[in-house]
Amino acid sequence: MNLSDKLDLTGKLIIQKINIQHKTIDECEIKNSITLNGRELVAKLFSSETNQQVKPVNYVAVGKGSKEFVATDNQLADEVYRQPIQEIHLQRIDPDTQEPRVKLILTVDLEADNEKVNDVPLTEAGLFSAESDVSGESDVMYNRVQFPPVNKTKDFKLTLIWEIIF
Length: 166
Fold this sequence. Notes:
- The protein is mostly beta strands.
- It has one domain (10-165).
- It is built from one helix and ten strands.
- It has one helix at 36-44; strands at 10-19, 24-31, 33-34, 59-63, 79-84, 87-93, 101-110, 121-129, 140-151, 156-165.
- The strands form two sheets. Strands 2-1-10-7-6 form a five-stranded antiparallel beta sheet, with no helix packed on it.
- The protein starts with 9 loop residues before the first strand and ends with a strand.
């Protein structure tokens, strides 16, 4: 009988370009990197030593930075825009197998008419536990993803779908 388990957090970002006819015209998947602060955020859920309430991840930020991922970073290299997460779904994966998992799916749409991201070569995104849509000192960047430039235009919306496996 195996009594051990491991909490191996993994995740990926799915980026979809969706045209004004609501058809997906391009899609890519990128594995994400979890920050040290992001891991600590999850660890605090198990700790009675922290007197503070753990604020969940509630924002997605996108940027145009090219800096390599560093686990101790707590912000994007060059943040352009931040938006509240619009949809959150939780589902069990293979509950009857030897390695059952839970998948958390977070979705944000950057609409076609979003002037803050249009005509910007987006290259990075991150999930944040934050007080507002303005970057702040108390924010926690859970993870960061870098990807080839996506030149957002008014001709399509960009849907960001984060899948995190616990």
